[in-house]
User: Fold this.
Amino acid sequence: MRARVYKSTGSWYTVKTEDGNFSMARIKGIFKIDGITSTNPIAVGDWVNIEVEAGGEEGGMMITGIDERNNYINRQSPANKYQHHIIASNLDQSLLLATLKDPKTSQGFIDRFLVAGEAYHIPSVIIFNKSDIYRKKELDLFEERKEMYESAGYKVILMSLADKTGLEGVEEILRNKTSLLSGHSGVGKSSFINFIVPGMGLKTQDVSGWSGKGIHTTTFAEMYDLPLLNAHIIDTPGIREFGLVDIPRQELSHYFPEMRSRLMNCQFNNCLHLNEPGCAIKKALNEGKLSFNRYVSYCMMLESIEEKTY
Assistant:
């Protein structure tokens, strides 16, 4: 039978068959080491082949194969910087829930998330939550971020789940798509799911007072059906950092859309846009046609990428 993975809890997976039935399944032993290099061989969103586990628990299923993925999004494994962890697969888009206060989502985190989406051809939408607690400083910062990201081609939304404002277009963004929902702990992901999927009652917690950081309430990635929208949404555990993997230094600028459109005008095709002569990116930057903050973010990412030697 063919099924889709809805939740991964380590050795067991919750899968939903094409006829709509949920089952628990685990991986066939040999499949664990069959050319899989990520820390998790199967991810939420995967389509898999399952069969009844012989001699196993009643109702237990065995995953015997995995369909080729349309795409996936990953990050550096928290346990090993040389390995990657697949967050989810077969996505139509990713929604990054961010906040400018309690907790504050850094631009660096947002940009790393966007680069990962660009690298795997997954469109990203940035949703700034908690507008109800923003004062002039945060609202001015939002306008700066909105202009910066929209000029790069991204959709940016301001909303408040607390007072139900700015939510008008969110359902249309989700309609007929499988969406990844990600962001730091404390930005409102569980509250967002509870709004989009009434009756879920996911546990929510406030931001830790002493650290200003979110408290983890989601332990494992999990997919939810949105039947009224013919859609799915995948909730992920709160991510403190978003380490990039498998992106060579020479390719990084390709994943900044506002840079990508100008790369052909650089004098050298291996230009890193630092101090090289004839650099179209530096020229556009000096002319005010590119965001200085985005360029700084690019430079910081570039510095963090280790050049692999073979």
Q: What stands out?
A: Residues 205-219 have pLDDT under 50 and may be disordered. The helical segments are 107-119, 136-151, 170-174, 189-196, 257-260, 280-286, 292-304. The chain has three domains: 2-66, 72-235, 249-304. Residues 136-151 form the longest helix (16 residues).
